[in-house]
Amino acid sequence: MTTQEIADQLVSLCRQGKYEEAQTTLYADNAVSIEPVGAPLERVEGLDAIKAKAEQWAAMVEEVHAFSTSDPIVAGDFFSMSMENDVTFKGMGRQSISEICVYEVKDGKIVSEQFFYTPAPMG
Asked: What is the pTM of this model?
């Protein structure tokens, strides 16, 4: 698949809430995920670790009030999109998270994802 096709499919699956399917079908086994400094898991490596990180995040969420993602912007082997989350975290209350997500594609798979946002205080 081209970078545009992967980007379009990722956005579609995210909009449907099919995050695990997106990871399983679109990510390379050795993919890397990078969060901002101060986030609970700043860097994980490997598809299994990325899936575990997503499960950990989901376990922290009490309720999702709203979620949206923009259409992707593609440039060569990279694409980006914005995400908006309005969620209530267990024991931490309701928070709005606005982020830019940047992905790199090689050999038809996502090999890295990096998220840019201001982490909320945890704890």
From this structure: 0.92
Domain residue ranges in the chain? 3-116
CB atoms within 10 A of CB 110: 25
- DSSP 3-state of 102: strand
The answer for residues whose C-beta is within 8 angstroms of residue 33's C-beta and 6 or more apart is 41, 43, 44, 45, 49, 50, 53, 112, 113, 114, 115
- Over residues 7-57, the pLDDT tens digits come to 999 999 999 999 999 999 999 999 999 999 888 789 999 999 999 998 988
Integer distance in angstroms from the first to the last C-alpha of the chain? 41
Q: What is the pLDDT of residues 74-88, one digit of tens each?
A: 999 999 999 999 999
**Structure tokens, 43:** 């860097």
For the record, the structure tokens of 3 come out as 């970078």
Provide the token pair at 47: 């598809």
The topology (CATH level 3) of 3-116 is Nuclear Transport Factor 2; Chain: A, (3.10.450)
